[in-house]
């Protein structure tokens, strides 16, 4: 998937917010007569949220070979510009934000609330390209950019939780992974999920597989950390991709990427996640 698909994916995600069959079923089963469903209330309040800013893309200097390569990958694909445009087309922002390509001296991505910025480290794209090439990927550049798209939407999850003061239950890192999957697996206008969008999620999961291979044996620090284990994040993403359309994405299970025991739960898991995010974000969408 190229960066140019980022904006259509985001728009599709929120054009269908609260309108899917599974979401409607959930609302119907959990709402008492005479009350207002959360999605309906959020939709009614949408006009009350002002749009007071934009996200802008900035490529900072790169001096090391790894950072220079990562910047080249991002800039050649206009990755930051397209991702920033997708946010501006979709959300009412309470102020101005930056999407920074930055030399960090390690593979990473993060949201900085003090600077009102999401940072995609050049080294992350460089690392992803090297990993996919090492594993025999036929197009490691495209797969690396897909992983960066996933990283961006994960950090966007942190940003939206912060700026909209969204209520969440559970660890924020896991919730941010959910937001990334929610956006990337949004159906097209005909209700189908583009196979390229599924590949983005699978490539994002593949980067976590690579991180797990790199770190080796897991110790107390990883178990006690704020993030789920890399393997857990990988399986979560694969589960949601499968659960979004089990028939179309059956290869995720048949190829051995996702255990059948987990796969049995994924359609329901994805449906609940999709409804939850659609409800939470409805008031803030243009």
UniProtKB/TrEMBL annotation:
<dbReference type="InterPro" id="IPR025644">
    <property type="entry name" value="DUF4344"/>
</dbReference>
<keyword id="KW-0732">Signal</keyword>
<feature type="signal peptide">
    <location>
        <begin position="1"/>
        <end position="23"/>
    </location>
</feature>
<feature type="region of interest" description="Disordered">
    <location>
        <begin position="25"/>
        <end position="53"/>
    </location>
</feature>
<feature type="compositionally biased region" description="Low complexity">
    <location>
        <begin position="25"/>
        <end position="41"/>
    </location>
</feature>
<protein>
    <recommendedName>
        <fullName>Metallopeptidase DUF4344</fullName>
    </recommendedName>
</protein>
<dbReference type="Pfam" id="PF14247">
    <property type="entry name" value="DUF4344"/>
</dbReference>
């Amino acid at each position: 998937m190229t960066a140019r698909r980022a904006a259509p994916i985001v728009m599709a995600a929120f054009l269908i917010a609260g309108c899917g069959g599974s979401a409607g079923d959930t609302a119907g089963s959990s709402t008492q007569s005479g009350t207002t469903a959360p999605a309906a209330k959020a939709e009614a309040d949408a006009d009350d949220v002002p749009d007071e800013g934009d996200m802008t893309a900035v490529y900072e200097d790169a001096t090391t070979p790894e950072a220079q390569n990562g910047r080249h990958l991002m800039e050649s694909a206009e990755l930051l510009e397209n991702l920033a445009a997708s946010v501006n087309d979709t959300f009412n922002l309470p102020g101005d934000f930056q999407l920074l390509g930055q030399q960090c001296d390690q593979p990473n991505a993060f949201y900085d609330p003090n600077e009102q910025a999401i940072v995609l480290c050049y080294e992350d794209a460089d690392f992803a390209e090297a990993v996919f090439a090492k594993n025999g990927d036929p197009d490691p550049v495209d797969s690396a950019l897909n992983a960066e798209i996933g990283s961006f939407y994960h950090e966007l999850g942190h940003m939206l939780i912060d700026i909209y003061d969204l209520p969440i239950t559970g660890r924020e890192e896991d919730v941010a992974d959910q937001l990334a999957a929610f956006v990337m697996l949004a159906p097209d206008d005909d209700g189908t999920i583009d196979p390229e969008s599924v590949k983005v999620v699978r490539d994002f999961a593949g980067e976590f597989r690579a991180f797990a291979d790199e770190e080796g044996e897991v110790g107390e620090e990883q178990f006690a950390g704020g993030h789920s284990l890399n393997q857990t994040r990988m399986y979560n993403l694969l589960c949601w991709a499968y659960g979004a359309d089990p028939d179309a994405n059956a290869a995720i299970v048949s190829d051995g990427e996702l255990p059948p025991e987990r796969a049995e739960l994924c359609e329901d898991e994805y449906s609940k996640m999709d409804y939850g995010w659609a409800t939470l974000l409805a008031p803030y969408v243009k």
